[in-house]
Amino acid sequence: ESKGKKRNPLHDFKKTGELMLIKVNKTLEVKTKLLNTTEQCAKRCNRNKGLSFTCKAFAYDRVTKRCHWLSFNSLTNGVRKKQDHAFDLYEKKDYVRNCIIGKGADYKGTISVTKSGIQCQAWNSMIPHEH
């Protein structure tokens, strides 16, 4: 990248306009703060700065300029989507993409079966194959 030009942190997120996520599962965590831009929200989510959880998404309230960092995304169990004209939802691409890049070492998506439909082996299991 060229000198002096900073990478836009929003590139790591998939945006869905006018959508908010509501947690049904009360153990899921949310933290909010007033911030002027979505870029500031994205930067903080990427770094998990000041958060007691791994940020998987954030919702930005355009009316109140409030950022809502989420420990979950739209694919998480115990979450429902809600149409809301004040909010834009930004989900980390790493957690919502279902494709493997390279050898898949950094894959964080939701696919857990092979192309032929066989259930994947859990990482903490040595059965049926050793690592």
From TrEMBL:
Does the record carry Iron-sulfur as a key word?
Answer: no
SUPFAM superfamilies associated with the record: Hairpin loop containing domain-like, Kringle-like
Domain Apple, by residue range, is 5-94
- Mind telling me which SMART domains this protein's record contains? PAN_AP
- One cellular component term from this protein's GO annotations in UniProt: extracellular space
- A Pfam family (short name) is Kringle
Listed GO MF terms: endopeptidase activity; signaling receptor binding
The UniProt keywords, alphabetically, are: Disulfide bond, Kringle
Any idea where the Kringle domain is? Answer: 98-131
Respond yes or no to whether keyword Transmembrane is given for this record.
Answer: no
**Record's superkingdom?**
Eukaryota
**Name of this protein:** HGF factor
Q: Which organism is it from?
A: Nycticryphes semicollaris
Taxonomic lineage from the root:
Eukaryota, Metazoa, Chordata, Craniata, Vertebrata
What gene name is given for the protein in this entry? Answer: Hgf
